[in-house]
Structure formats: structure tokens, C-alpha cells
Amino acid sequence: MTQTHSPIPIHLLLVEDSEADIILTQEAFKEAGIHTHLHVARDGVEALEFLRDPARPRPDVILLDINMPRMNGLEVLREVKQDPQLMTIPVIMLTTSRAEEDILRSYQAYAASYVVKPVEFGKFYDAIQALGRYMLTIVRLPPRAG
Length: 146
Known about the structure:
It comes from Deinococcus soli (ex Cha et al. 2016). By secondary structure, the protein is α/β, with parallel strands linked by helices.
């Protein structure tokens, strides 16, 4: 497995209500050598509280599930993209939904990418590692504020 080492850790906000997916995501980044500060919000309300708290670090990327309690990912995405302080943060939808309507609505609300989480453990793990390498080696993220 190719190790990807980032000189500067990126701050990720993972908005996910599945404890198993949170743990798998943490382990996949770690094993791939992707240096992140992974912050976790377990629903949309918690995510917006994190994002609007000036004492919290501003994430470089948001990984956002769609199906969550209290406030779903599409609602969070719309809130983020309408907020001048948050709108430049890339949001990657990371969800099990393959529904064309969810895909279309995500891009209409300015999601940067839409990734369907594989159900199989090994494929999920590989997808998370590929996503991490993509964020560190292929795309340019917006500069950090401040």
C-alpha cells in the first residue's frame, strides 16, 4: 500500500451518525498515512454548532452523510453554502444513498463531490483511503482563513 504523507495535517469534519463508519474512516486515514485532524459531528445540528463556534478549528473539508437524525446532510449542505463564512469549505457527500434525486440535489446545493459508501468493509476502507489521497495529492483546497 502506498503511503501518502501530508506535511500539514488537514482538518476534516466528518458528519456521520454511524459509529462503525466513524471508526473505519479514522482507521483508513491512519493506515494510508494521511495526516488529519478528524473532528466528528454525529448529526447536522451538531455539525452546524461546530462550524459556527469560533473556538473550533475551521475544517479544510467536510465529509457529510445524508441520512442523519435531527437535520439531514442536504439541509446542512444548504446552510453551509448560504453562509458567507462557511461557503468556501468543500463539502463531499459521503453516503449510502444511490438515489438520483439525492445526487442531483447535492450538486444543486453546491456539493464538491458525491461519493457512495460501499457496503462491503474492504471496499469502504479502500474508498476512504482513495478519498484521502485525492484530497491531499490531486485537488487544491482553499487557503485557511486567518
